[in-house]
């Protein structure tokens, strides 16, 4: 009977994926693609013996990606005697690598902390990643203790670049994106090997190897102003672990090494917000000794002079940059550009 | 989180997690499973139905009875309880993916810089366990420690004692007002901390940024009991009838930089890629800081008053470098 003679029953995506996982765990020696398409629930209903199964094969390729995305170790075995032949590749999931190691267990208190950690991410891909991790944790059957009430710390990772970048990192995939460097008027296309994504001083940074210059560069995720797209066929050799740690250390060193001195108008927003970030030299004790009505001098650390210049320019007359001179120039330049762009049209008095 | 639509991969993760859990909890009620996984009971029933009919092709490649999971159907249908009677292929919890482990580890890094999670040893051992429980090295994701805020401790103590807090608050126009607030919740977004509470001045729930507070103290005045009657809104940005619309000109590529203001497109980009959008603001004094911090990339088009406020703000800034005040 030709398989096309009756409409195949509708098998849901999760049923097909679940059946594929079960079949690949149950097999010791692995299954070939043809065997999978012919026998596994969700594929076999659509398989045409001796016919064209191209779309079903593409479905299988996507399903493999989805399963690997879940952290399931789907292996490809190349038959020893027939290397190079794509046809007889066998697929399987080794149970020993699938199962959570038996010494990994969690107490109720630990589970409570992990739930809080998952709740840190309220939106975006980090949120769905951590919710899935919680689902897996729940399978262990441990009940968590109640978290501290009235307390909901969360971080945003909603920059659109976040998800494509973390995918590309996992696949060691070179990507390209338009980057609007702080202080520059127009974006420029960058092509990089993404190595780590880190949150430092409230900003998400990408640490990456720039493919043009060959240098390590740090990018602000918020300044990636267009889609992050993979460069087809271009992958890179993954760097050893600890890239994120190195990236944070490098940012810390930079932050430590760079200082700016600014005066702020007392009681202003600038004073209130910047004082919390001072290096300590002009701390609360210093504040009391300053004569009333005098602008306060603060010392600020920073990682990127253009980002700090953007920020300080926003405070307008509340901040006066003392040094470094390059920062002073950058702030003045921004203020001038803003003033010019908002000047009244010719012949009209600004103050009407 | 339970009401969000789920993706097929999320549902697969649920199926794979449910099997080992059901193995360990023979005869558990659907309601208890739903509570444990924090999902609707119907989702549990659907999943159990699917599991009970799934299995492996087996030697015959026909999915015969012994190659399928099975449950005690009478118990399931009549009593809403789940008893697995046959197992296939899996009997253990799945490992975490590199990204799942990384998301939890980064969340833990953030929590570990908060005062009440100061037990670094416990957190470090937890991170090591997550790494060991992942099928690949966790993705390179890290969160630098944040400076914890003294105010958090004061507010938490006030929440526990059930008393009002009192502080001087700097609003966006630059005014200081003494506020009395029944603290409801502390939240942080990125590096900024916020207090959500019942403001006695405004007679409404308000959000206060901790770094705009000064002279914060816990009072001895009991806070009112708001548990039942107060809904804390999930968004920080509450629209009001006093808001005004401002039109901005900007290159299309700069749109993400003003995403917080939820701009509405008011036209298509011109040949040079510049476009016009409208944003809703409570007053132009917050906006002038944003526009000036964007260094001329974004300009205010309308109304003229808003343009003037921005112009004056930038000009006053320049004057400070020219010896003026």
UniProtKB/TrEMBL annotation, chain A:
Residues 161-225 form the WYL domain. Residues 260-339 form the WCX domain. InterPro entries: CBASS_pafABC_assoc_protein, WCX_dom, WYL_dom. PANTHER family: PROTEIN PAFB (PTHR34580:SF3), PTHR34580. This is WYL domain-containing protein.
TrEMBL record, chain B:
Residues 245-315 form the WCX domain. Pfam families: HTH_PafC (PF19187), WCX (PF25583), WYL (PF13280). InterPro entries: CBASS_pafABC_assoc_protein (IPR051534), PafC-like (IPR028349), PafC_HTH (IPR043839), WCX_dom (IPR057727), WYL_dom (IPR026881). Residues 10-132 form the PafC HTH domain. Residues 152-217 form the WYL domain. This is WYL domain-containing protein.
């Amino acid at each position: 009977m030709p398989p096309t003679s009756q409409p195949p029953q509708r098998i849901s995506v999760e049923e097909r994926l679940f059946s594929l996982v079960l079949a690949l765990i149950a097999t010791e020696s692995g299954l070939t693609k043809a065997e999978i398409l012919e026998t596994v629930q969700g594929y076999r209903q659509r398989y045409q013996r001796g016919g064209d199964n191209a779309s079903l094969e593409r479905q299988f390729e996507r399903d493999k990606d989805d399963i690997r995305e879940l952290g399931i170790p789907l292996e490809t075995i190349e038959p020893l005697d027939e290397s190079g032949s794509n046809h007889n590749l066998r697929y399987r999931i080794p149970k020993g690598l699938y199962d959570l190691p038996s010494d990994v267990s969690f107490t109720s208190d630990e589970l409570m902390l992990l739930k809080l950690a998952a709740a840190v991410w309220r939106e975006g891909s980090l949120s769905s990643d951590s919710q899935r991790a919680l689902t897996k944790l729940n399978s262990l059957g441990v009940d968590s203790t109640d978290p501290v009430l009235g307390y909901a710390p969360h971080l945003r990772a909603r920059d659109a670049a976040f998800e494509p970048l973390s995918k590309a990192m996992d696949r060691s995939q070179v990507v390209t994106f338009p980057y609007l460097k702080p202080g520059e008027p127009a974006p420029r296309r960058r092509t990089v090997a993404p190595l780590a994504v880190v949150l430092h001083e409230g900003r998400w940074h990408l640490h990456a190897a720039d493919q043009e210059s060959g240098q390590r560069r740090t990018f602000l995720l918020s300044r990636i102003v267009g889609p992050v797209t993979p460069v087809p066929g271009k992958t890179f050799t993954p760097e050893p672990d600890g890239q994120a740690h190195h990236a944070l250390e490098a940012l810390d060193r930079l932050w430590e090494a760079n200082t700016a001195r600014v005066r702020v108008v007392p009681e202003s927003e600038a004073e209130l917000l910047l004082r919390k970030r001072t290096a300590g030299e002009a701390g609360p004790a210093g504040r009391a000794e300053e004569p009333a009505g005098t602008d306060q001098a603060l010392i600020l650390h920073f990682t990127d002079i253009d980002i700090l210049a953007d920020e300080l320019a926003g405070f307008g007359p509340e901040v006066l940059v003392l040094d470094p001179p390059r920062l002073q120039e950058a702030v003045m330049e921004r203020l001038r550009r803003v003033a010019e762009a908002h000047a009244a049209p010719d012949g009209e008095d600004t103050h009407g | 989180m339970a009401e969000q639509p789920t993706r097929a991969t999320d549902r697969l993760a649920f199926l794979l997690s449910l099997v080992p859990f059901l193995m360990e909890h023979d005869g558990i009620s659907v309601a208890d499973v739903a509570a444990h996984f924090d999902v609707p009971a119907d989702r549990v029933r659907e999943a159990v139905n699917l599991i009970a009919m799934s299995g492996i092709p087996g030697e015959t490649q026909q999915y015969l009875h012994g190659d399928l999971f099975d449950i005690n159907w009478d118990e399931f249908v009549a009593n809403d309880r789940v008893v697995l009677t046959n197992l296939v292929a899996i009997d253990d919890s799945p490992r975490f993916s590199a990204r799942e482990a990384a998301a939890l580890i980064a969340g833990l890094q953030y929590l570990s810089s908060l005062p009440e999670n100061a037990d670094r040893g416990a957190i470090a051992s937890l991170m090591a366990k997550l790494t060991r429980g992942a099928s690949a090295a966790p993705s390179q994701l890290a969160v630098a420690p944040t400076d914890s805020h003294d105010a958090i401790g004061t507010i938490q103590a006030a929440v526990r004692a059930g008393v009002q807090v009192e502080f001087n608050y700097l609003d966006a126009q630059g005014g200081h007002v003494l506020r009395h607030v029944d603290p409801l919740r502390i939240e942080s977004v990125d590096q900024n901390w916020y207090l959500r509470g019942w403001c006695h001045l405004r007679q409404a729930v308000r959000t206060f940024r901790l770094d705009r507070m000064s002279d914060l103290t816990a009072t001895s005045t009991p806070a009112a009991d708001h548990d039942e009657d107060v809904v804390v809104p999930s968004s920080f940005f509450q629209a009001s009838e006093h808001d005004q619309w401002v039109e901005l000109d900007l290159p299309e590529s700069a749109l993400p930089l003003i995403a917080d203001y939820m701009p509405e497109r008011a036209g298509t980009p011109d040949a040079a890629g510049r476009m016009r959008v409208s944003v809703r603001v409570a007053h132009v004094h917050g906006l002038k800081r944003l526009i000036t911090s964007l260094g001329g990339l974004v300009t205010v088009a309308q109304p003229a008053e808003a343009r003037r406020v921005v112009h004056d703000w930038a000009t006053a800034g320049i004057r400070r470098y020219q010896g003026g005040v």
